[in-house]
Design brief:
This protein is an alpha/beta fold. The chain contains 5 helices and 14 strands. Strands 1, 2, 3, 4, 5, 6, 7, 8, 9, 10, 11, 12, 13 and 14 form a 14-stranded mixed β-sheet that branches. The chain is elongated and about 55 Å long. The two termini are about 25 Å apart.
Amino acid sequence: MKRLLVSKAHTLFAGYKMTQEKITLIFANGPLKHSSYLDALVKQADLLIAADGGANHCEKINITPDILIGDLDSIHPAILADYKNKGITIHRHPKRKDAADLELALNLAQQEGASTIWMIGALGGRWDMSLANIMLAAGDRYLELDIFLLGQDCLLQILHPGKKFTLGGVPGQKVSLLPLKNDAHGVTLKGFEYPLTDHTIPFGSTLGVSNIIKKDQATVQYTEGILLCILFYQ
């Protein structure tokens, strides 16, 4: 059973210990809100990667990544110099390239054996970048990974078919389930205000928007497609 990490009284962990083999945090250059649950994530991470300007966030919250990757046009020069002095592993790429820095970081995390990846600072700011980051995380090449995107007012997870996801949220918490690639078939939702049984959520519909958790735990299962689960903090 897969578990979707959720907020409970503004805490993402609520006594839940992550057990995946390798947890990787990737810091991107988008808006970032420092919080106690981000600190908890950092403590449980096995690998920290800064995607270019994501290193500026790392500096602000007083952490040093294991790896810096990107074209390095957004990182503050003083931070870059400090990383070089500390011997931090740096993967420098040309500015003219076919992938954004976050994609390079995600591919690197996969190569390093990550099983669970949290993308920090990947939402907000530019619409094109936020959408591209969500679609990137839903790519077929990352099918075997558990990928989360930590936002300022919500938590996103890419769900894949054939697995059972448990949301350990609180009653009244709002959740949206949006198909990202074709229709989502065989959707069964339990513990929600609006349950479903072996239902189809069509791509391009609003059927999965603004559901509500009714019990301490709610479950999501489906058989085909890719779903984006958006859990809004209370």
